[in-house]
C-alpha cells in the first residue's frame, strides 16, 4: 500500500506540472478525488488488507488525499491568476491624456421650441400637462362637441387601433376634458383659474408634402375662470409669440370653424421664410396657419364638469392649439416639414437652444 501511494504521488505531481488550464485540472481532480478516482480505489483496497495494517494504511491514504486536495487548490488559484493576467494584458491600452473626438448629441428642434414655450407659459402661471397618445373616441371627439357622424370629423382623419374605440389622437385638444376634471375642483372651491398647456404628438392620415406630415406636434392651452374674454386670449397669444420670435411678427385673426370653440378663430402668422411674398412652405399665400383658437364652447365646458345645465356661462375660457412643428419651421427657417421626421442627424443636430 505504501509503495502504491508513493507511486500515485509521483504520478499526480507529474501530471499536475503539465496542467495549464482549468478544464485539464478538473479532469485530473476527478481522476484522483471523484467516487471512482484513485483515492476511492485505495479506500476499497483498504478493506482487503490485514487488520493490523489498516490503521497505518488508512492514515497514509488520508494524508495522500489531503495532499492532493491542497495541491489542487494551489494550482487552481495559480491558473486563475494567470488567466486574469492574460485578460489584463490583452485589453486595449490607451493614453488618457489624448484629446477626445466625441460628437455630442443635440435636442430635436421641436423639443427646443416645446421647452421654450413651456418656460414662457409657466412664467405666466400655466401648468404643463402630459397626456396619452392613444385616446378614446369620447375624449378626442365627443367631449369636444364633435358627435359621432358629424361632418367636422372629416377634417381629422386619423388612425384607429384594432382595439375598439381606441385611436391615435388627432389633436392635443383630446386632453381638454381630462384637464377640466383634474383642475375643476380647485377652480370651483378655491377660485384658482385653470391655466394649462399640454404639448404632444398628434397623428392624421395626411398626404405628406413640404407642409403636411402624418405625425406632428401641437401644444394646446386653455384658461378658464370667471369673465375670461377674447381680449385675454389675444393678450396671451401676443405675449407668447413676441417671446418666441424675439421680434415683432405680423399676425392676423380671422374667423375659423372648430366645433369646440364659439366664436372660433384662425391665428395666422406672416410667413417668416419668404416675408409674406409666397413660397412652398406657405403654399404661396404669404401666411401660415399657426394657431386655431377661440372661446371654449359651452357644451365642452359642460362635458368637462365646469358649468351646470342651469348656468352654462358661469365660467368662460379660451383655448388654443399651437402647431409646434409649424412654429419650429418658422423659428428655424426649415422649408420642408419632412426634415423633422427623417432622422437625418446632419440636418437635426445643427439646432441649439437659444
Ligand atoms: Zn412663405
Layout of strands and helices, then pairs:
Layout: H1 2-17, H2 22-33, H3 38-46, H4 51-90, H5 109-123, E1 127-128, E2 134-136, H6 137-140, E3 166-168, H7 176-190, E4 194-203, E5 215-225, H8 230-245, E6 251-255, E7 261-270, E8 287-296, H9 298-303, E9 316-323, H10 324-332, H11 345-348
Helix pairs in contact: 1-4, 2-4, 3-4, 5-10
Bound molecules: zinc ion.
Account of the protein in words:
41% of the residues lie in helices and 18% in strands. The chain is built from eleven helices and nine strands. The strands form two sheets. Strands 1-4-5-9-8-7-6 form a seven-stranded mixed β-sheet, with helices on both faces. A two-stranded antiparallel ribbon has the order 2-3. Helix 1 (2-17) runs parallel beside helix 4 (51-90), helix 3 runs antiparallel to helix 4 (51-90) and helix 5 crosses helix 10. The mean pLDDT is 89. Zinc ion binds at residues 271, 273-274, 278-279, 281-282.
Give me a quick take on this structure.
The chain has eleven helices and nine strands.
Cofactors and ligands present? zinc ion
CATH architecture field of the largest domain: 2-Layer Sandwich
β content, as a range? 15-25%
Q: Which fold name fills CATH's third level, the topology of the largest domain?
A: BirA Bifunctional Protein, domain 2
Low-confidence stretches: none
Amino acid at each position: 500500500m505504501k509503495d502504491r501511494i508513493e507511486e500515485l504521488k509521483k504520478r499526480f505531481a507529474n501530471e499536475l506540472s503539465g496542467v495549464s488550464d482549468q478544464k485539464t485540472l478538473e479532469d485530473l481532480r476527478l481522476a484522483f478525488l471523484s467516487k471512482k478516482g484513485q483515492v476511492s480505489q485505495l479506500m476499497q483496497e483498504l478493506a482487503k488488507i490485514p487488520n493490523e495494517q489498516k490503521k497505518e494504511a488508512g492514515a497514509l491514504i488520508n494524508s495522500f488525499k489531503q495532499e492532493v486536495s491542497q495541491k489542487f487548490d494551489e494550482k487552481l488559484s495559480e491558473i486563475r491568476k494567470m488567466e486574469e493576467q492574460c485578460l489584463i494584458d490583452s485589453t486595449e491600452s490607451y493614453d488618457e491624456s489624448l484629446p477626445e473626438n466625441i460628437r455630442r448629441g443635440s435636442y430635436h428642434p421641436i423639443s427646443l421650441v416645446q421647452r421654450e414655450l413651456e418656460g414662457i407659459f409657466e412664467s405666466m402661471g400655466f401648468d404643463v400637462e402630459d397626456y396619452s397618445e392613444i385616446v378614446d373616441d369620447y375624449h378626442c371627439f365627443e367631449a369636444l362637441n364633435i358627435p359621432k357622424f358629424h361632418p367636422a370629423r372629416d377634417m381629422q382623419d386619423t388612425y384607429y387601433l384594432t382595439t375598439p374605440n381606441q385611436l391615435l389622437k388627432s389633436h392635443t385638444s383630446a386632453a381638454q376634458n381630462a384637464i377640466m376634471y383634474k383642475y375643476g375642483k380647485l377652480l370651483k372651491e378655491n377660485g384658482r383659474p385653470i391655466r394649462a398647456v399640454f404639448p404632444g404628438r398628434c397623428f392624421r392620415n395626411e398626404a405628406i408634402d413640404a407642409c403636411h406630415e402624418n405625425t406632428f406636434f401641437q401644444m394646446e392651452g386653455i384658461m378658464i375662470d370667471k369673465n375670461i374674454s377674447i381680449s385675454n386670449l389675444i393678450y396671451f397669444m401676443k405675449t407668447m409669440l413676441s417671446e418666441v420670435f424675439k421680434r415683432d411678427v405680423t399676425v392676423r385673426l380671422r374667423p375659423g370653424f372648430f366645433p369646440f370653440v364659439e366664436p372660433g378663430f384662425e391665428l395666422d402668422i406672416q410667413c417668416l421664410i419668404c416675408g409674406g411674398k409666397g413660397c412652398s412652405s406657405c403654399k404661396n399665400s404669404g401666411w401660415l396657419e399657426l394657431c386655431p383658437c377661440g372661446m371654449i364652447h359651452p357644451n365642452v365646458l359642460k362635458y368637462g364638469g365646469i358649468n351646470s345645465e342651469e348656468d352654462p356661462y358661469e365660467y368662460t375660457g379660451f383655448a388654443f392649439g399651437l402647431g409646434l412643428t409649424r412654429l419650429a419651421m418658422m423659428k428655424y427657417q426649415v422649408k420642408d416639414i419632412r426634415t423633422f421626421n427623417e432622422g437625418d442627424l446632419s440636418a437635426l443636430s445643427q439646432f441649439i437652444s437659444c
